[in-house]
């Protein structure tokens, strides 16, 4: 007799707007920012918070305001039951996508029935690379003897990784500007058409993503100096530093049936891979291939893709290598327009993806993103 594998369903997903560095969300403590998401998620689904088995939160810079298990602090700051546990994880930029993976895995294993997965990052309050900045009194993470033996003393940095990918995959700089302009145009259209309305939780009088530009001047974009001397990427070709939070409620089939919940999608297949830690950002290529293979799908079977726009070259190299039509990628804009609040981005992308799948009637959606250390998560969702 063949056993039926338990399924994990995304019941709802909600996110804050993404705020610009120093913008409308910067005054909020990240625990309060994420707490707003937790409260809204439970209110929207009608799930009794005391029935939640676990809360899994992604966050990259876990120090200062984001130290000491910010996911637990957010749950408690929202006045939710102290009996519900929480954990905060770090898989770099994929932290909250991994949070969803862990939630789905616990449910598919039959160990839990309701898990809240999410992420938060206030890059205004805890700046980029704070935890590894020697200038702040911390040691440099890529400086040990073992690291030097295996990977040398070369600079390890995402900006260099983005440029190396542009060089290795032969990505044309004008194509990068095309992608950046399209990102803003798609996000602006999504705002104007109300495509984000079902997923957005206004916070602190911020009602829309703050970084989206209605118009883009290619000549001005070209004139901005590169991030690295002699590099390919300048600020318009990279994700925006941002503040934000997002969350998803993941439930078992038993919980869905007993509580009368209406899921948006099922978590069809998940995977995570390692890749070159010096190149850093090429992981979405093998991750996408692996998750498609495990799902029994081809790239053409997927209706919608979310590939995080950490750098323009990352998305273009991935699409070129995997054979993905850019018309199906980041159709409502990506991180170059919306922003990349590191630990929140995995959940933000999945929130945007699952709501667009419902809006457009797409059957399959695939999300992937590059991550520090040469890592990448990939997730296939199926609309139900």
Automatic annotation (TrEMBL):
Gene3D superfamilies to which the protein is assigned, alphabetical: 3.40.47.10
EC number, UniProt record: 2.3.1.9
Keywords from the named record: Acyltransferase, Transferase
Family as reported in the entry's similarity comment: Belongs to the thiolase-like superfamily. Thiolase family.
Name this protein carries in UniProt: Acetyl-CoA C-acetyltransferase
Domain Thiolase C-terminal: 261-383
Presence of keyword Transferase: yes
KW Transmembrane (keyword) present: no
Signal peptide (UniProt feature, chain positions): none
Domain of life: Bacteria
Active site residues according to the UniProt entry: 93 (acyl-thioester intermediate), 340 (proton acceptor), 370 (proton acceptor)
PROSITE patterns xrefs: THIOLASE_2
CDD domains: thiolase
Domain Thiolase N-terminal stretches: 9-253
GO molecular function terms listed in the Swiss-Prot or TrEMBL record: acetyl-CoA C-acetyltransferase activity
């Amino acid at each position: 007799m063949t056993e039926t594998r338990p399924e994990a369903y995304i019941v709802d997903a909600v996110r804050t707007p993404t705020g610009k560095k120093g913008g409308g969300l910067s005054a909020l403590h990240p625990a309060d920012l994420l707490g707003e998401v937790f409260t809204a998620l439970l209110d929207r689904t009608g799930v009794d918070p005391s029935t939640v088995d676990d809360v899994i939160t992604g966050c990259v810079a876990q120090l200062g305001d984001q130290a000491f298990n910010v996911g637990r602090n957010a749950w408690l700051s929202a006045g939710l039951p102290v009996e519900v546990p929480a954990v905060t994880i770090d898989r770099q930029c994929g932290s909250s996508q991994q949070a969803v993976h862990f939630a789905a895995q616990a449910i598919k294993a039959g160990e839990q029935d309701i898990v809240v997965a999410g992420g938060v990052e206030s890059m205004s309050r805890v700046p980029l690379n704070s935890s590894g900045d020697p200038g702040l009194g911390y040691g440099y993470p890529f400086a040990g003897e073992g690291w030097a033996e295996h990977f040398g003393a070369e600079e390890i940095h995402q900006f260099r990784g983005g440029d190396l990918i542009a060089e290795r995959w032969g990505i044309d700089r004008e194509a990068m500007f095309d992608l950046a302009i399209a990102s803003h145009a798609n996000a602006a259209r999504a705002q104007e058409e109300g495509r984000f309305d079902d997923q957005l939780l206004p916070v602190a009088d911020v009602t829309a993503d703050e970084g989206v530009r209605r118009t883009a001047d290619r000549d001005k974009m070209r004139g901005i100096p590169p991030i690295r001397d002699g590099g390919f990427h300048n600020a318009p070709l990279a994700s925006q530093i941002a503040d934000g939070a997002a969350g998803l409620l993941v439930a078992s089939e038993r919980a869905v049936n007993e509580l009368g919940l209406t899921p948006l999608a099922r978590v069809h297949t998940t995977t995570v891979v390692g890749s070159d830690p010096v190149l850093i950002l090429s992981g979405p290529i093998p991750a996408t291939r692996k998750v498609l293979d495990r799902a029994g799908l081809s790239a053409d079977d997927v209706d919608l893709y979310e590939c995080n726009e950490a750098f323009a070259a990352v998305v273009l190299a991935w699409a070129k290598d995997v054979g993905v039509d850019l018309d199906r990628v980041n159709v409502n804009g990506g991180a170059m327009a919306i922003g990349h609040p590191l630990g929140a981005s995995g959940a933000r992308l999945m929130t945007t993806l699952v709501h667009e799948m419902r809006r457009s009637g797409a059957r399959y959606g695939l999300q992937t993103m590059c991550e520090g250390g040469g890592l990448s998560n990939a997730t296939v969702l199926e609309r139900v």
